[in-house]
Amino acid sequence: QVQLVESGGGLVQPGGSLRLSCAASISMFSRITMRWYRQAPGKQREWVARITSGGATEYVDSVKGRFTISRDNAKNMVYLQMNNLKPEETAVYLCNTYYNFGSGWRDYWGQGTQVTVSS
Prior knowledge:
There is one protein chain. This protein is mainly β and 119 residues long. It is built from no helices and eleven strands. The protein is 0% helix and 51% strand. A hairpin with a 4-residue loop joins strand 7 (67-72) and strand 8. It is globular and about 45 Å long. The N and C termini lie far apart (40 Å). The model has no long low-confidence stretch (mean pLDDT 96).
């Protein structure tokens, strides 16, 4: 059974930093691509970053140079370091993977962690 659990959200002032974590209960974690998304109130869910099994990373343009996605395969963890946060980045941040663990290809989501950027 696949389970993703995010943590690390909170209230931060504009320009501040947060580090989000996602714990994945996935036996083949090291082989799969992991992603972070975010969803602000009243807006569509937005892809933020991804990291492949080989460690290649990709980001939405708006966070390039400020956010860093990383993973620790020994701990089944993926992280999102967020620097210079902006108020418009207030959202629920969700960990995701899209994979076929035997019952067909599908998305798996965590419950999300709230990030609030406000003074």
